[in-house]
UniProtKB/TrEMBL annotation:
Membrane-spanning parts: 53-74, 86-109, 129-149, 161-181, 193-216, 236-263, 283-301, 313-334, 346-363, 384-404, 410-432
Any single GO CC term annotated in Swiss-Prot or TrEMBL for this entry: plasma membrane
Record CDD domains: MATE_like_8
Name of this protein: Transporter YisQ
Compartments where located: Cell membrane
Molecular function GO labels: antiporter activity; xenobiotic transmembrane transporter activity
Keyword Transport: yes
UniProt keyword annotation of Repeat present: no
Keywords on record: Cell membrane, Membrane, Transmembrane, Transmembrane helix, Transport
Species: Paenibacillus radicis
Bilayer topology annotation: Multi-pass membrane protein
Length: 466
């Protein structure tokens, strides 16, 4: 009989530090948006557009970091701590290399990339500044993501939370200084915001690295970064590449949607950027539960607690749905006033309020999708997520917004309606897949086969001995 999981792998113990970290990231984004709005709505549009681009490009190293995170949790669950340690080291090295390549591309070609993605010409000078500086530090983003994921997968979700607190404080202070010329800093506007982002990420990466070196049972030394295990890396890729392809389909659909919105105008682009800030607040606690659920289920799955893993999702889902709906409703009630803090343009505020009404419908579908999608990822069923992302997200979430929003002339509301349909269709499909219990039953059969083999071997040995 398997022992119950350690207390640090309970859903609440995993989720609350992740929530605080996400909440601080939200505050960081809100502070960014609020401070940048003091420069101009055009600057806000550029930051929102650029962040979508950066998010799309992170999928290139998510292949390794996410696959590694799932395997680390599974290996720790099955008490193979040395394997977990080796996987983490490999992941950091590979993602750092990918991040370096992305940094060089974004630093050298910021204007060309923004132009290809249909950013309005008047915004290109601002985009050149922001993309070249923040995009040029993608190596830090890559390393941070992998270090945080590896540390969380060991059950330590508090460490990344503390670092997020410090990073937010540094970032907000530097933002204020660079935008308004305070604390003896030059008044550099959007350039200062970009530099503030890079500096805070650099400091966070350094601290995360020290925490990472002590994250496993046996301390990691710098000499250990020479380690590379082909077999373990193939396992990471086996889980990670479908995960990354599926995620990239969604992220690139969001990037394409931003390019559609850019066709509508700078006001619509600014409205969507403000909306992103409020929407992220709605989903923070739900997302933290979904992320914690993935770590917990991967650990249970690795420990052989298959039935427990299966049932855990349903208990967590209803709590998360209620929380997400309550958050969305509160934001809808006060959304107009909140938007008024960011901008005084009546047109932008009106568009934002309309989107907040639709957000009430979006969030439950998004939670359904995240809960079961993360659970499937945790047990290694990442190819199914990839298939539905490539089919549903690229059509309903990527192509249909152009037809409905641009071709049919329904504008921003039509585009958002397609985003809602995408979340619900994928949510229902991953729910049905989880109900089939394919990976759970396969694992149970494998465990039963191993027991029979051990019993048979033991029986034969007894006969031979007699």
């Amino acid at each position: 009989m398997m022992n119950s999981q350690p207390r640090k792998f309970t859903l609440w113990m995993l989720a609350w530090p992740i929530f605080i970290e996400l909440f601080l990231q939200f505050l960081l984004g809100a502070a960014d948006t609020l401070m940048v709005s003091r420069i101009s709505d055009d600057a806000v549009a550029v930051v929102g557009f650029s962040n979508q681009l950066f998010m799309a490009l992170t999928t290139l190293f998510i292949t390794v970091s996410s696959g590694a995170g799932i395997l680390i949790a599974q290996r720790i669950g099955s008490r193979k701590n040395e394997d977990a340690r080796t996987i983490a080291i490999i992941a950091v090295k590979v993602t750092a290399l990918i991040g370096l390549v992305l940094s060089l591309i974004l630093y050298i070609m910021p204007t060309q990339i923004a132009a290809v993605l249909q950013l309005p010409d008047k915004l290109l000078p601002l985009a050149k500044v922001y993309i070249s500086i923040v995009g040029g530090s993608m190596i830090l983003t890559a390393i941070m993501a992998t270090l945080s994921t590896s540390i969380r997968s060991t059950g330590n979700t508090k460490g990344p939370m503390y670092i997020a607190i410090a990073m937010n404080v540094v970032h907000v202070i530097l933002n204020y200084g660079f935008i308004f010329g305070e604390f003896g800093l030059p008044q550099w506007g959007l350039t200062g915001v970009a530099l503030s982002t890079v500096i805070s990420r650099l400091l966070a990466t350094i601290v995360l690295l020290f925490m990472f070196l002590n994250a496993f049972e046996r301390k990691i030394n710098l000499a250990d970064f020479r380690i590379f295990d082909n077999k373990l890396f193939k396992e990471v890729l086996k889980i990670g590449w479908p995960l990354a392809v599926g995620l990239s389909a969604w992220v690139f659909s969001q990037l394409v949607i931003f390019s559609y919105i850019a066709m509508l105008g700078a006001s619509e682009l600014a409205a969507r950027t403000y909306m992103n800030t409020l929407e992220s607040f709605c989903f923070m606690l739900g997302q933290s539960i979904a992320m914690a659920l993935q770590i917990q289920i991967a650990h249970m799955y690795g420990a052989g607690e298959y039935r427990k893993a299966y049932k855990s999702v349903f208990r967590a889902l209803w709590i998360a749905e209620l929380i997400v709906l309550m958050n969305a409703f509160v934001i809808y009630l006060f959304g107009g006033k909140v938007l008024g803090i960011f901008t005084k343009e009546p047109e932008i505020i009106a568009m934002g309020v309309s989107l907040l009404g639709m957000n009430l419908v979006l969030q439950p579908g998004k939670m359904l999708n995240m809960a079961f999608g993360n659970s499937l990822n945790a047990v290694g069923d990442t190819r199914f997520i990839m298939i539905i992302s490539l089919t549903v997200t690229t059509t309903v979430g990527g192509l249909m917004p152009y037809v409905v929003g641009i071709h049919w002339g329904w504008g921003l509301l039509g585009i958002y309606g397609c985003m809602i349909a995408d979340e619900y269709i994928r949510g229902v499909l991953v729910w049905l897949r989880w109900k089939q219990q394919k990976m759970i039953r396969r694992a149970e059969q494998g465990t039963a086969g191993q027991r029979e083999s051990i019993t048979a071997t033991g029986g034969n040995a007894s006969v031979a001995k007699a």
